[in-house]
Amino acid sequence: MARGSSGAQLAAELGAGGHTVSHVSADLGSLASVRSAAGRIRDRLDRGDLPPLCGFVGNAGMQYTNALPGADPVPGPER
Length: 79
Known about the structure:
The protein is an all-alpha fold. The protein has 2 helices and no strands. The protein has helices at residues 6-15, 31-47.
């Protein structure tokens, strides 16, 4: 799964070595989008368009910002 056009670009780069590579786009910030992408992958597996999955690697990032005025930017014990 990939966001935006990054998946198509990466699939093209990885596929240049003769490997079969595909991607499914998803907005990882939307549970509905992730579920839809998972459904598309399941459908492709059921049709035999993809070989059986032996593993899945997921990577997610998080950015924490405290937008409260005057808040301590590094929460924790008093200094």
